[in-house]
Amino acid sequence: EVQLVESGGGLVEPGGSLRLSCAASGFTFSNTRMSWVRQAPGKGLEWVGRIKTKTDGETTDYAAPVKGRFIISRDDSKNTLYLQMNSLKTEDTAIYYCTQYSNWGQGTLVTVSS
Amino acid sequence: DVVLTQSPLSLPVTLGQPASISCRSSQSLVDTDGTTYLNWFLQRPGQSPRRLIYKVSNRDSGAPDRFSGSGSGSDFTLKISRVEAEDIGVYFCMQGTHWPRTFGQGTKLEIK
């Protein structure tokens, strides 16, 4: 059974940093491109970014609102996906999901507030 | 960015009746490889999204066969042949052809 389990969310002040993790199991993580999608409270889904596999150079792509502030990485030895979030803004407040689209984690809530 | 416009945004449906959701794209979603990367997701209340349909009309494993997807180019439709109580929630279309990936604004299906 595929499982994606996010962690690392919490309350952070504007300008602060946070690193989210997503532990994957039940599939060949190293062969799978992975994405982060977020959902602000009561709002729709917003694509954050994606990382390709090591074979494809671990290339990353980001949405404009997070480009230059967020970094997606992966550790295939640990079957874990990461989202390093820097220079956080109040508008980054959301539930963050890791996903390969056919499967989604339960999400982790990030609240950016003073 | 590609804009996906869903309609209706609210869809009250009687149990056992059909339902249909439209997703129109501001650009063609046909990729250079000839594939159209249009997905449909359902997010039940309090849950994570779940993919129902990928590449326009392919049903995910576990998705009931009352769900079907159709369309081409920039005009797509999700149909539910007979709505059941477990179908309530918000439906999103998402395109995987252009960067950045984008989602429709969501259609909330509720039971009348």
Instruction: State the end-to-end distance of chain A.
Output: 40 Å
> What share of the residues of chain A does DSSP label as strand, in percent?
over 45%
Number of helices of chain B: 0
Number of helices of chain A: 0
Order of helices and strands of chain B: EEEEEEEEEEE
Shape of chain A: globular
Largest interface: A-B, 19 and 22 residues
Low-confidence stretches of chain A: none
Can you write the helix and strand succession of chain A as a string? EEEEEEEEEE
Per DSSP E runs of 2 or more residues, the count of β-strands of chain B stands at 11
Low-confidence segments of chain B, given as residue ranges, are: none
Structure description:
The complex is a heterodimer of chains A (114) and B (112). With 114 residues, chain A is mainly beta. Helices cover 0% and strands 48% of the residues of chain A. In chain A, the strands form two sheets. In chain A, strands 2-10-9-4-5-6 form a six-stranded mixed sheet, with no helix packed on it. A four-stranded antiparallel sheet of chain A has the order 1-3-8-7, with no helix packed on it. In chain A, a hairpin with an 8-residue loop joins strand 5 and strand 6 (60-62). The termini of chain A are far apart. The model of chain A has no long low-confidence stretch (mean pLDDT 97). By secondary structure, chain B is mostly beta strands. Helices cover 0% and strands 48% of the residues of chain B. Chain B has strands at 4-7, 10-13, 19-25, 38-43, 50-54, 58-59, 67-72, 75-80, 89-95, 102-103, 107-111. In chain B, strands 2, 4, 5, 6, 9, 10 and 11 form a seven-stranded mixed sheet that branches. A four-stranded antiparallel sheet of chain B has the order 1-3-8-7, with no helix packed on it. The mean pLDDT of chain B is 97.
What are the main properties of this structure?
heterodimer, A: 114 residues, mainly beta, 4-stranded antiparallel beta sheet, 10 strands, 0% helix, globular, B: 112 residues, 7-stranded mixed beta sheet, 48% strand
